[in-house]
């Protein structure tokens, strides 16, 4: 497949691609000026209006490796899955892959945590691990992120003086025969990590959670936090070496930023007689409702103002602003939702 003149973007399957769920990536891309075709149907995805972009449907779990191999140029994935692939390359192949996080989408916020059975004596994580490592030459864990699990485990073992005895690891399918007799076995799972920990199949688990409610429902304890993650845009390490693709990437990112920056923002237009101008300007100034200066269009007898407001603000609700403007003489007050708001090219540092 010839992709030399196209910017190849890894589009994640799953909840972000579901138009019926919150945080839909499809809607975000549309507001950025990149409507997709086929993405909401499970692919193949394309960008019918911007054919210089190519969608590569995939799982966010895979994008880290594809970026490292320069198979795709940009990818939308969680920090946790990118880190997982980096650690896999490091621990399995002895290779370091440097990927660049270029933008956060402010969606999919989760915590990656260590879970275990409740500790009756209230041990902290170091006490718990020191006791576990001293008793068990072979520790077992379960995780959808097995390399993150091992990296956390070995870092902790080193800090507690067990680096030599527990340095070996094996990543296996759940409950397959052990390949090692010392160190750590991580059983790679596809969900329901909590049940495996609760039922005593393993010593520890690594779980992806938003609120921790499922963990609590299983009567388990969160012993430690490995990392926090959210949906982000990542770039191939070679993207900057291709000037044409790099320029396309900056164009894509700028418009994506515009759609994100516009979320919960509206434009409010209103008219006023010229004799009311000073008191309206003072109100806008006192409430910091413009940047350098408000946008004003002057007529013979009337002035048209336009200001940008955060429609989700609880400090200065939009309904209150419109009412107070009306009290100061504003008329024809109109509110228009924003699809995009781009402060300037300086917002893109990539």
Can you describe this structure?
Helix content is 30%, strand content 28%. The protein is α/β, with parallel strands linked by helices and 350 residues long. The protein has a six-stranded mixed beta sheet with strand order 7-8-6-9-5-10. The chain has a five-stranded mixed beta sheet with strand order 2-1-3-11-4. The protein is elongated. The model has no long low-confidence stretch (mean pLDDT 92).
Topology:
Blueprint: E1 7-12, H1 25-31, E2 53-58, H2 60-68, E3 74-78, H3 79-93, E4 100-104, E5 110-117, H4 125-135, E6 138-143, H5 146-159, E7 169-173, E8 183-188, H6 193-198, E9 204-209, H7 213-217, E10 220-229, E11 231-235, H8 243-261, E12 265-273, H9 277-286, E13 295-298, E14 302-310, H10 318-327, E15 331-337
Parallel strand pairs: 1-2, 1-3, 6-8, 6-9, 7-8
Antiparallel strand pairs: 3-11, 4-11, 5-9, 5-10, 12-14, 12-15, 13-14
Helix pairs in contact: 2-3, 3-5
What labels describe this entry?
350 residues, alpha/beta, D-Maltodextrin-Binding Protein, domain 2, Alpha-Beta Plaits, six-stranded mixed beta sheet, five-stranded mixed beta sheet, 10 helices, 30% helix, 28% strand
Low-confidence stretches: none
Tally of domains: 3
Helix content: 25-40%
Largest sheet: 6 strands, mixed
- How many distinct beta strands? 15
- CATH class of the largest domain equals Alpha Beta
Provide a short characterization of the protein structure.
With about 350 residues, the protein is an alpha/beta fold. About 30% of the residues lie in helices and about 30% in strands.
């Amino acid at each position: 497949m010839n992709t030399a003149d196209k910017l190849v973007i890894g589009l994640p399957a799953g909840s972000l691609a579901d138009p019926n769920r919150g945080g839909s990536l499809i809607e975000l891309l549309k507001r950025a000026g990149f409507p997709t075709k086929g993405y909401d149907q499970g692919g193949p995805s394309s960008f019918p209006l911007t054919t210089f972009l190519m969608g590569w449907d995939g799982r966010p779990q895979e994008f880290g490796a594809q970026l490292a191999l320069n198979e795709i140029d940009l990818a939308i994935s969680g920090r946790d899955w990118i880190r997982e692939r980096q650690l896999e390359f490091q621990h399995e192949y002895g290779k370091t892959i440097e990927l660049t996080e270029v933008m956060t989408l402010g969606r999919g916020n989760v915590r990656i945590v260590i879970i275990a059975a409740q500790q009756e004596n209230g041990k902290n994580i170091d006490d718990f691990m020191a006791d576990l490592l001293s008793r068990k030459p072979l520790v077992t864990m379960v995780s959808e992120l097995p390399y993150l699990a091992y990296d956390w485990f070995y870092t902790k073992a080193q800090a507690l003086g067990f680096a030599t005895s527990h340095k070996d690891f094996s990543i296996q399918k759940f409950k397959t025969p052990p390949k090692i007799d010392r160190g750590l076995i991580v059983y790679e799972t596809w969900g329901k990590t909590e049940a495996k920990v609760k039922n005593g199949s393993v010593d520890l688990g690594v779980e992806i959670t938003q609120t921790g409610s499922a963990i609590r429902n299983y009567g388990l304890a969160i012993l430690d936090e490995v990392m926090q993650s959210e949906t982000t845009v990542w770039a191939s390490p070679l993207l900057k070496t291709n000037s044409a693709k790099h320029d396309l990437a900056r164009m894509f990112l700028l418009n994506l930023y515009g759609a994100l920056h516009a979320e919960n923002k509206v434009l409010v237009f209103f008219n006023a007689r010229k004799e009311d101008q000073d008191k309206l300007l003072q109100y806008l100034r006192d409430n910091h409702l413009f940047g350098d200066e408000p946008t004003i269009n002057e007529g013979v007898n009337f002035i048209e103002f336009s200001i940008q407001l955060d429609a989700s603000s609880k400090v200065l609700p939009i309904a209150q602003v419109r009412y107070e403007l009306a009290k100061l003489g504003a008329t024809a007050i109109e509110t228009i939702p924003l699809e995009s708001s781009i402060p300037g090219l300086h917002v893109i540092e990539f």
